[in-house]
Structures
1.
Amino acid sequence: MTEWQRMQCARSGCSNEFTPDRSSQRYCSRSCLHRRRNAEPLDARECKACSRSFRPRTVQGLYCSPRCQVSAAQKAYARRLPLPEKSEPERTGVPRTITLEADVFAELEFQAERLDRSVSWIVSRCLDIAMPSIYELPTMPEPEIWRGSR
C-alpha cells in the first residue's frame, strides 16, 4: 500500500492539508468540493489525534482526516475499562410454585439424580421438548359462564 503525502485542498479559501485516500483526490472532503466559495473559513485548531493544526470543515470537526478519526476510535476502544467479572450468575426468573403428585415429583427427583442435574433443569428440558406438541393441540372453546363474567 502506498503512503500518500499530505497535500493542500484545491478549493480556494480552504487551507486544510489532508492525506488523500486515492491518487485523484484534490479536495479534503465532499462538502469542501461542493461548499460555496464565499463561505467564511473556520479558525484553525489542533487535531485531537495527531496534534497537527488544521482548519475544520464543520464546527464539530475534531480530527484533521478520517484516518485520524479512526485511529482515535481504536485508541479509545483499547483504553476501555474491562467488564467486571460476575461472581455469581444473575437470576433471570422469579421462583414459582408448581403442585405435582408425589409419584411425578419422585420421578423428577430420580431423573435429576441420575443425570446429575437440578429438578428445575429437568422441568425446563421437559417443557422444551413438549411445547411443540402442546402447541399442536386444538384450542378448547371458552365455557359460557366465563364469557359473561368479563
2.
Amino acid sequence: MDENTRSQKLAAEVLGTALLVFIGVGAVPATLIVNGDAPFTMADLGVISFAFGTVVIATVYALGHVSGNHINPAVTLGLAVSGKFPWKEVPGYIAAQVVGATIGALAIVGALGSKAHEVGLGVASFNRSLGVGNVQGFCAEFVGTFILVFVVFGVIHRKAASGFAGVAIGLVVFAAIIPVAPATAAAINPARVIGPMLVLQAFGDAGCQARGEAPAGHARCGVYIDSNPSKESTPRRNAFCRG
C-alpha cells in the first residue's frame, strides 16, 4: 500500500464511499419508488441489505489495495486507536468519506430524479413509529457498528485466511443490517448518514447515530487488543427514513 500516494488513497476513499452510498443507500429510494403504495416488506429489506453487502465486497477488492477501503469513519477510527493506522491520516480519510457520501447521494438524485428526494433519499434515522428513542437508537447503531469493526479487525489479522476479507466484510454488512434496520435503518457508518443528510438539508437524528457508531469502533479495538495482547421526508418514510 506504500506505493500509493496520499492523494490516490483519499481519492479511493471518496470513490469507494460514493459507490457505497449510490448503490447501498440508493437501493432504498429505488425500492420505495418501484413499490409505490405497496407496504415495505422483509423481502425489500433483504434486497437493500444485499445491495449494501455486494458493493462493499466489490469495493474491498477494487480499492482495498489503494487505501484499505475504509469507507467508514468508524473503521478508520478503530484502526487508528489500535495503532494499525496513523492518526495524522484520520482527518483526511474521514473528510474524503464524507465528501464521497455526499457525491453518492447527489448521484442518487441524478439517477432517480426528484422522486428520490420525495421518498427521503434513503436517509437513516430512528424509527419513531416503533418508539425508538435516542438510547435505543444509540445501542442499535453501537452493536451493528461493533460487529462490523470486529469482523474487519479479524480478517486483517496476519493469521486470517487470505483472500476472503472482502467476502467476510460484505456478508457481515448484509447480516448486520437485518436486525438493526427496523430500529435505525442500520447506518453503521457516520459518513453514510451525513452525506445524504447534507443533500436533503436536514440533519435530524444524524448526530446521535454518528455518536453511536464512532464509539463502537473504539470499543471493538479495545476488545481485539485485549484478546491479542502480544499481537499486533417526505411522503413515504419507512425504517430507512423517519424524522
